[in-house]
Design goal:
43% of the residues lie in helices and 20% in strands. With 223 residues, it is an alpha/beta fold. It has a single domain (3-220), classed as Vaccinia Virus protein VP39 (Rossmann fold, 3-Layer(aba) Sandwich), CATH 3.40.50. It has a seven-stranded mixed beta sheet with strand order 3-2-1-4-5-7-6, with helices on both faces. Helix 2 packs antiparallel against helix 5 (92-104), helix 3 (43-56) packs parallel to helix 4 (70-76) and helix 6 runs parallel beside helix 7. It is globular, with a radius of gyration of 17 Å. The chain starts with a helix and ends with a strand. The relative contact order is 0.14.
């Protein structure tokens, strides 16, 4: 198995199951033209997020890490009329691109993009009484995931889903001797999740056009 084969399979599955969409494709093109890193979720992963939100019946979604707004669009489209999505982005350049992409997708009145460090925006959301959120998607700097997970729990309720991306780090997550701060952040989060009585969680390894990685899904079971 190789990255080339994984990408070919992703392309085949995406062509069959994820129809082309002008707003999503424009979001990717605009992000690339603006020089944003190509770390957005893959199309089939975006649709997975969309389906998870629909299965959950989410009316409120919190996204930590907007980038160019690609996953934001997938998630916001899963909301029913009157639903809302709050997305947090620390980089002004990324936020500007995301704002354009979200507006082009016709979701400007659904999405509330907050510019600033997540560890500053999250307490403000709590102070505003913005929660509880039905689904929280964490896809930001990995060394801070433990803190983001803690805030996700504070802003969730029983039945909420917390999805955390990029937790396998090409297998380095299993390396207890790692000095990589991102891997250490993921490992700390996983250890927290394993001891947290308020959630039931699992982790899935993935291969595809984004390489070898994985994600966590945690169901909040207690307040």
């Amino acid at each position: 198995m190789s990255d080339t084969q994984w990408t070919a399979v992703d392309r085949y599955l995406t062509e069959l199951l994820v129809p082309q969409d002008s707003a999503l494709e424009a979001a990717l093109d605009d992000s690339a033209s603006a020089g944003l890193p190509g770390i957005n979720v893959a199309p089939n992963q975006g649709k997975l997020l969309h389906l998870l939100a629909r299965v959950r019946g989410a009316r409120t979604i919190l996204e930590i890490g907007t980038l160019g707004g690609y996953s934001t669009i997938w998630l916001a489209r899963a909301l029913p009329p009157g639903g809302r999505l709050v997305t947090l982005e620390a980089d002004p350049a990324h936020a500007a691109v995301a704002t354009r992409n979200i507006g082009r997708a016709g979701l400007g009145d659904v999405v509330d993009l907050r510019l600033g460090l997540a560890n500053e925006s999250l307490p403000r959301l709590a102070q505003e009484g913005a929660g509880p959120f039905d689904l929280v998607f964490i896809d930001a700097d990995k060394r801070s995931i433990p803190e983001y997970f803690d805030w996700a729990l504070r802003l969730a309720r029983p039945g909420s889903l917390i999805v955390v991306d990029n937790v396998v780090r090409r297998g380095e997550v299993a390396n207890a001797a790692t000095e990589d701060p991102d891997v250490k952040g993921v490992r700390s989060f996983l250890e927290l999740a394993s001891r947290e009585p308020r959630v039931s969680a699992t982790a899935i390894q993935t291969v595809g056009s984004k390489g070898y990685d994985g994600f966590v899904i945690a169901l909040v079971t207690e307040a």
